[in-house]
Amino acid sequence: FHFYFKRHYHISLPYTVILMLVGAVLGAFYQYELIKRFTFIADLTPVQILAIFLPILIFESAFSCDPHIFIKCLGQILILAILGFFISVVLTTLAVMYWYENEYTNDIQACWTWDQAVLYSAVVSATDPVSVVSLLKSMTSLKTLSTVIEGESVC
Description:
This protein is mainly α. The protein has two domains: 1-43, no CATH class; 44-154, no CATH class. It is 73% helix and 0% strand. The chain is built from nine helices and no strands. α6 packs across α7 and α8 runs antiparallel to α9. The chain starts with a helix and ends with a helix. 8% of the residues are buried.
């Protein structure tokens, strides 16, 4: 689809937009029995999807990484992975607590404890730099930068 749009309409759409459009069209036809035969993967639980796709994604990322650059940049990767994630969780927790405190001051049921806010922030603030890494690989960028970002996503 990407090449069709680019060649015939001179429109360069990112593949994620095309995947979303194809998914929306297939989702609209999901009620028909013919389509349901080919969409059995939609019946998988989130745990099954995670168990199937996460090892593949981690393996591909680790396999395509240059080991010499990875070892050379390991300190930077660990700083980004650990300290960056910690700072992101703290800032997201503070934002969530501030928002709930100001938004729902009269409703006692809507108030979150700090534990709930930290757990929510740890889930929400996890980064997924897959699109950034694919963009860096398609451009003529520094190999070190793409290795650092990809290594941070693996950690």
